[in-house]
Amino acid sequence: QQERDAAVSESQDLRLKNKQRISMPGEDLNTEFSSYELEQATRGFDQELKIGEGGFGSVYKGTLRNTTVAIKLLHPHSMQGQSEFDQEIAVLSRVRHPNLVTLIGSCREAFGLVYEFLPKGSLEDRLACLNNTPPLTWQVRTRIIYEMCSALSFLHSNKPHPIVHGDLKPANILLDANFVSKLGDFGICRLLIQTNTGAAAAATTRLYRTTTPKGTFAYMDPEFLTTGELTPRSDVYSLGIIILRLLTGKPPQKIAEVVEDAIESGGLHSILDPSAGSWPFVQANQLAHLGLRCAEMSRRRRPDLATDVWKVVEPLMKAASLTAGRPSFVARPDDSPPPSYFVCPIFQEEMNDPHIAADGFTYEAEAIKGWLDSGHDTSPMTNLTLEHRELIPNRALRSAILEWQQQRQRHQPQEEDDDCT
């Protein structure tokens, strides 16, 4: 019993330390488990505990040393299974990041990998609303884009060698109980050795070459498919397709063409996923353009993740955070919607404290201040540089909004009385 308690304590201490650090280069954080422990954790690999299955093998939910875990069993007799087993351990046992799946340990005897359990499943399942789960809001989707940018930036800047994931797709993005996203499945990722230096080299140098590219076709860098050359901007292409999927909810095949056509015809709003709620058009438009830039066929034309992409995504994340948890305006069947000029272009909600910015547009004070405080010097509506940061209260509009709200409130009791008679 003392030995068991000591093992549990050691495992808990290890997990705590893993959460507190981002990366420990060269340090192996892998814990070795026996095949007996994995069998006990899954009640003999009970089919009722199986939560995933594919060409790689099977995934089970289990309880290991008093902790709920996910146990992936790879096909032991497959060369691909052995390679992916070693690769997953080589990467995840040496890096830690809040948006990477945590590898708790492994079992070479059973070709098993033990991960933290993420109860909300994959992003692919959530986009499909599998098992009647509620759709992800636009705020959560924006945060997922931000978190994947953070995870990829971390991997691409790994020392001494960058790490390219190589199979970025919604099925490999898992969600915890709070819908925080974590990138998993590093079985085909690559440690890259650069032969040149400098920013230009990152986009043009052959960092890794293979004659048999692996991954999911719709999300794969076209240049990787044709040349076998893998670079950090291969992941940027995959991220672009994911951004467009989160915006529209549409399948990945030819999604860039669909979005580009919608933008050119002025119909972007018509292809936004309505299940995500009322996407603020400013944010949606910026994400659509960013997704298309990331998904350029030519690697050289894709934006740099650490600079160009981050400059767009970080402010959008802050703006989305301002509305997270706030009740969005939803008109009841017996309510008339507010006039469009009562609605903040950023929050997409009826304004309470309207202010005029240098671009001549009126915004909710909290929204435009958040936009400016996050480093923007451009208009959220026109993308042109603002001449100044001064905000002027729009008192006339505020009076009109208050009058409209009072009229609506006066009508509601009468309607309720009518319903009772």
From TrEMBL:
Its EC number is 2.3.2.27. GO terms for molecular function: ATP binding; protein serine/threonine kinase activity; ubiquitin protein ligase activity. ATP binds at residue 72. It holds the Pfam family U-box. GO terms for biological process: protein ubiquitination. Pathway: Protein modification; protein ubiquitination. Residues 337-411 form the U-box domain. It comes from the Eukaryota. Transmembrane segments: none annotated. It catalyses: S-ubiquitinyl-[E2 ubiquitin-conjugating enzyme]-L-cysteine + [acceptor protein]-L-lysine = [E2 ubiquitin-conjugating enzyme]-L-cysteine + N(6)-ubiquitinyl-[acceptor protein]-L-lysine. PANTHER family: OS02G0152300 PROTEIN, U-BOX DOMAIN-CONTAINING PROTEIN 33. Belongs to the protein kinase superfamily. This is RING-type E3 ubiquitin transferase.
